[in-house]
Structure formats: C-alpha cells, structure tokens
Amino acid sequence: MDTAPPSYSAAVGGNPVQTQPGQQILTQQAVVLVPVILTTQFKIVPYDKPYVEYCPVCKTNVTTRTKYVPGGCWSVVMILAILFLILPLLFLLCWSGVKDVRHHCPTCGSLLAYKRRMCGGSGN
Fold it and tell me: Which intervals hold domain LITAF (predicted)?
C-alpha cells in the first residue's frame, strides 16, 4: 500500500500556509465567545393589581402578571421587628402590602413595570 497518511493540518483542522516549497506552517482559528447583556426598560407605576400594558418583546397588549418581592418597606419592617423584638411585625413580612410589585408579561416573562412601596404612606 503506497498511500500517504493525511497531512497534520488536515487531521487537526487547521489552515496550512505555504512558506517555501515543501514546508507548511499550521495556523489555528480561535473562537471567541462574547457575552451578550440584554437590558430591558420598565416604568414605575402606581398599580398593585394586574393591568393592560404593551409588551415591546411580544409587540402586543397583555394583562400583566404580578409578582410580590421584598423591597425597601419590607426591609424596614424586618429591621424594626428584629431590633425591638416585636413579634406581630414579623407577621407583616408575609403580607403583600409591604412588598414591591413587579409586573411581568405573561407570554414572554419580561419585566414591564414596577411598583415601589414607601413605608411613609406616601407611595401606597
């Protein structure tokens, strides 16, 4: 059998570059992965309950899906309850009235709006 094995560049997958007759230099291509950061813009709203909002991702009007998350007012109540050992205040931490409200698109899940609670009573 008089067949030659494949060249190194063919076996490895590189690109051969001819320098002189009979000599090859192997070059490799590097794949660089660049992270993509998606940013969404949302607005601050005074609504606790779901409402109709335009979703820029779905490009349709949707009724928002709400999610209650701990925010600034929730943190103040928790600190007061811990510092002064006021056990009834700990029950307020389970109440949605002291948590911030996030409004999401029910189809794609993107954040559309946000309601921030204020403990002073001016933002509720």
Answer: 34-117
State how many domains the chain has.
1
**Separation CA 84–CA 6 (nearest Å):** 79
Phi, psi (rounded to 5 degrees) for 98: -105, 5
| 102 part of a folded domain | yes
Are 46 and 115 in contact, with CB atoms under 8 Å apart?
A: yes
Digit-by-digit pLDDT tens for the chain (124 residues) are 566 666 655 555 555 555 566 666 666 677 777 776 655 577 888 888 999 999 988 899 999 999 999 888 888 878 888 887 777 777 777 777 778 999 999 999 888 999 988 776 544 4
- Beta-carbon contacts of 113 under 8 Å, excluding residues fewer than 6 positions away, are 42, 43, 44, 45, 47, 53, 64, 102, 103
* Domain region containing 68: 43-115
Cα 122 to Cα 71: distance, rounded to the nearest angstrom: 15
Domain contains 89 = yes
Residue 29 inside a domain? The answer is no
